[in-house]
Amino acid sequence: EMELFVHGFPSDVAALRFEWAWQHPNASHRLFAPPLRRPREQPISFALRLLPHLLRAPPWSRLPLKIRWLRPPRPALELAPPPHVVEEEGAGPPRLKRKKRRGPEVGVAISGCGICGEAEATPLLRCPRPQCSMAAHPPCLARLFLAPEPLQLLPVGGACP
C-alpha cells in the first residue's frame, strides 16, 4: 500500500531522476554516503529512512518539494526532512494551480527595475502582493536573494525589497 508521494518537481525528468536515486541509492551519484539497509529491514522502512537523505542531497535540497502522506498515522522519520520541504496529509492528489490571467492593471506605471533602475530590457517580475508595486529583473532579484548564500546558483526565497 502506498505510504506517501513526493511532488513539486520542476519537470518530469527531475522527478524520474529522484525516483531512480530513491530506488538505487548505492548506484546514485547524488548520495555521498547512502545509508545501508539493516538486516531484516523491510523495504518500505529502508525507503522511509532514505527519503530525508535524498531530500537533503543536491539537486533536490533546493527544490520546493512536498511530501504527501496518504495514511494516518504517518511513521516518524529517523531524520527530519529539510525545513523547506512541506509535509501534507490526506489521500487527495496534489491539485494543479491554474494560472490566473491578470486583467489590465490600472494606475500602475513601472518604468524599470526597482533594484538596478534600468528600463525593461527583459520582462520584470512583479511582487505577488496586490498593494506592492515592486518589479525587478530576475537576475537582479537572484543577486539580492543570494547575497547570504553566494555559492548557490538559484535562490530558494527572499523578501520583497
Automatic annotation (TrEMBL):
<dbReference type="GO" id="GO:0008821">
    <property type="term" value="F:crossover junction DNA endonuclease activity"/>
</dbReference>
<protein>
    <submittedName>
        <fullName>SLX1 endonuclease</fullName>
    </submittedName>
</protein>
<keyword id="KW-0255">Endonuclease</keyword>
<dbReference type="GO" id="GO:0000724">
    <property type="term" value="P:double-strand break repair via homologous recombination"/>
</dbReference>
<dbReference type="InterPro" id="IPR013083">
    <property type="entry name" value="Znf_RING/FYVE/PHD"/>
</dbReference>
<keyword id="KW-0540">Nuclease</keyword>
<dbReference type="InterPro" id="IPR048749">
    <property type="entry name" value="SLX1_C"/>
</dbReference>
<keyword id="KW-0378">Hydrolase</keyword>
<dbReference type="Pfam" id="PF21202">
    <property type="entry name" value="SLX1_C"/>
</dbReference>
<dbReference type="InterPro" id="IPR050381">
    <property type="entry name" value="SLX1_endonuclease"/>
</dbReference>
<dbReference type="GO" id="GO:0033557">
    <property type="term" value="C:Slx1-Slx4 complex"/>
</dbReference>
<dbReference type="GO" id="GO:0017108">
    <property type="term" value="F:5'-flap endonuclease activity"/>
</dbReference>
<feature type="domain" description="Structure-specific endonuclease subunit SLX1 C-terminal">
    <location>
        <begin position="113"/>
        <end position="161"/>
    </location>
</feature>
<feature type="region of interest" description="Disordered">
    <location>
        <begin position="81"/>
        <end position="101"/>
    </location>
</feature>
